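Homework-ish question, so no full write-ups if that breaks the rules, but can someone show me the predicted structure for this set?
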Amino acid sequence: MDAPEPEAPDSARSRAKDKSPWNWLLLIPIVVPLIPAFFNADSPRLFGFPRFYWLQLAWILLGVGTTTLVYQMTKKRGEH
Amino acid sequence: MWRDHLTEIIVFSVLFLLVSAMGFVAARWRRPQDMAHLDEWGLGGRSFGGWITWFLVGGDLYTAYTFVAVPALIFGAGAAGFFAVPYTIVIYPLVFLVLCRLWSVSHRHGFVTPADFVRNRFGSPVLALLVAITGIVATMPYIALQLVGIEAVLKTMGVTGDSALARHLPIIIAFAILAAYTYQSGLRAPALIAFVKDSLIYIVILVAVIYLPYKLGGWGSIFDAADAKFQASPAPGDGILLNANNQLQYVTLAFGSALALFLYPHSITGVLASRNRDVIKRNMSALPAYSLLLGLIALLGYMAIAANVKPLPGAKAGSVDGNTVVPLLFDQQFPDWFAGVAYAAIGIGALVPAAIMSIAAANLFTRNIYKEYLKRDATPAQEANVSKITSLVVKVGAVACIVFLDPQFSIDLQLIGGVIILQTLPAVALGLYTRWFHRDALIAGWVAGMGLGMWMLYQIGNPATGKKHFAGSAFPLSEFGFDTKKTIYVGIVAVLVNLVVAALVTLVLRAAKVADGPDGTTPDDYFADEGTPRAAAPADRAPSAPEPVA
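A: Not a homework solution, just the prediction itself:
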């Protein structure tokens, strides 16, 4: 292997990879699951699950959805 | 008696031995040209793709102890134990970008541990040593907890004796096998075994959450049974919902645990073993599948209530071992062979994380103590060898913790472990983003956060068990002079104080123009991806042995 260049030629582009307004969406699945007012109740029940349980399990989907969206949207920009 | 559980024991043993054989064969899987290198033994050649990383990191984070202890907590306290669900939801978006930066800079410089990064970023061997020791100390009780998980299963099967040695013999044998194949195959062993472990767990849980509610009268009546139990109990904090006093604790514990998880050296080992940034990003959106699993497993605690499970007695007279509720539930509700499969899933579920943890602790010792202080010019082959031997020592230590000390002691230590590993957050996680902190200020912050955290944990007693100190992580805010019954997670307070101290001391040191260490990384290092060549090692780091490019 050659000695590495301190400034790789594609550095500007690869730096753009991490900087994206889409990343702000990641805050949603970080903040929402940490607000007990949303989920700390028994009703409505869903399939017998109190709200406390089904809603927190549903937030897994919120997390997966958001991270997948951010990954897909930022991947295209960085592709070269 | 164990004779009543013969089918379970046979199924358990067969699956356990099958997996052990896989552990030995793993050395030949994706075989490297040269196993005598820490990158190969300790990081699987830094070559794992999406699926392997998913199983490896998943198998690493969701441990046997989680599968046993979280439902036990739900069984005993109710809603408060469900914190593990928001915790494992919040974590992935939280570290989505952070881990990519860590991977890139580690790839560029050949870092194997978080302390390697700190050493280079802040030019401070002392700070790196603190990070390394914190990591090793936090990991040891975590390994011991995996044994607690296996022990709960063995106890339920009646595999237990009267003397201390007889009681622990099965675990000693299991760990001897584990130690042997980890020694031989390194990170490849848990990576390969993780496939089996998680397939078994997924099967068992899917069957359990479909079949058990059907048998127990539906989810509604399961929750109602739990509600009735907590209504009748005198404890103030339990219930199927949170009350006004433990909501802050719930949220700060979930958030603090999420901050802590990827600071643990073993989580970082799993991440650094992946092939490129893309693998990490894809995993951050795919790993929550395990959180769903964890949420469903947690609810086994309520099913155990509905099924009238009575936990087995604990080590001390009059106490109960809550960890046995899930194994007992399977024992009572399922045919023997299926309970055996479930026990094997938990048992094997202990081996995967225990192997990764011992490898991570061994890497910390090798890179940040042995190579830094004992033998500066160690060759890659010597490093790999020291790591292999250290991983054995670590496992012997964990077994000794269980055999000679009360297992409760490991549980308490692990509680402390979470609080202390959080104190590496400013240097490791924030260090990935900013070089603003002065190296000595980070040391001051670490000392302040650690001291406060230990003091707070020392203050926490539990009148129900008669323990005066280290009985939990919920610190009553009234101790700080607030007029309230609310509690807060110790780790969050300690890490905030750590940050404030680090910031203030930085300002003072900068004003006094105290010399800071050199930054061995460049901004571009944080975005390097697969295929970027390694940066040359700085002259003071490895004078004689340039790292070969993997």
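Now go work out the reasoning yourself. Hint: The first strand of chain B starts at residue 474 and ends at 476.
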